[in-house]
Amino acid sequence: MAMSTPQVPCAEPVTTVLTWQVRPGREAEFEEWTRGVADCVARFPGNEGVSWLRPEPGHRFHAVLRFADPQRLTDWLVSPERAEWHARIEGVATEVRDERQSTTGMESWFRLPGTAVKAPPRWKMVLTTFLGAYPLTLLIQWLVAPGTAAWPLPLRAAVFPLVLLPVLTYLVMPGLSRLLRLWLYGTPDD
After folding, report:
1. Does the keyword Transmembrane helix apply (predicted)?
2. Which positions ≥6 away from 66 have C-beta within 8 Å?
3. Quick check: 146 and 173 in contact, CB under 8 A?
4. Torsion over CA: 55, 67, 100, 31 (sign)
5. DSSP assignment string, the chain
6. Engineering a disulfide at 51: which of 24, 44, 64, 144 sits with its beta carbon 3.0 to 4.6 angstroms away?
7. Looking at residue 121, what is its pLDDT?
8. C-alpha span between 158 and 74 (Å, rounded)
9. Measured between alpha carbons, how far apart are the two ends of the chain, in Å?
10. Chain centroid to CA 117: how far?
């Protein structure tokens, strides 16, 4: 009787938004702290980037963390390194834990940090993604595809997502979702 080995599910990258409430007058000190903690997390295994946002006036800041998988994110969240950085900011800012959000899919392009706002309707996400992907597709077809015409099909096919997806994820979609936020989410009175 042959024993089957359990299949380990393939882990997806995860994006988490952490919200910080900064004491009035301590913003500059907090911003200096963000640079140090960002350098620390950048060296942590599985980290794929961190961005700091201050989308509205006031004393709230948002950290958008991207990790290779949920386990590596958890490793960072419980790490001694993170605990040390938290100790340094005591009295300056506190994390608003009930606003912590994590996503593993494309909806992370459309989530508003620190809010309970639902993702926009799927048709708006599709249209916004098309607006971001179409110009990049044209550029790739114009600039990259002619140089790869002699390559085997599997290799040519790999070039497209390898160029398109990182540019969409890190540059185009965050900008488009900010630019189109009123259309995507409506006004606060809606």
Report:
1. yes
2. 13, 14, 15, 47, 48, 49, 50
3. no
4. negative
5. -PPPPPPPPPPPPEEEEEEEEEPTT-HHHHHHHHHHHHHHHHTSTTEEEEEEE--SSSSEEEEEEEESSHHHHHHHHT-HHHHHHHHHTTTTEEE-GGG-EEE-SGGGGTPPTTS-PPPPPHHHHHHHHHHHHHHHHHHIIIIIGGGGTTS-HHHHHHHHHHHHHHHIIIIIHHHHHHHTHHHHH--TT-
6. 64
7. 78
8. 31
9. 62
10. 17
Cβ atoms within 10 A of the Cβ of 37, count?
19
Per-residue pLDDT, 108: 55
Residue linked to tokens 């009123």: 182
Q: 29 is written with which tokens? A: 């000190």
Identify the residue whose tokens are 């380990």: 8
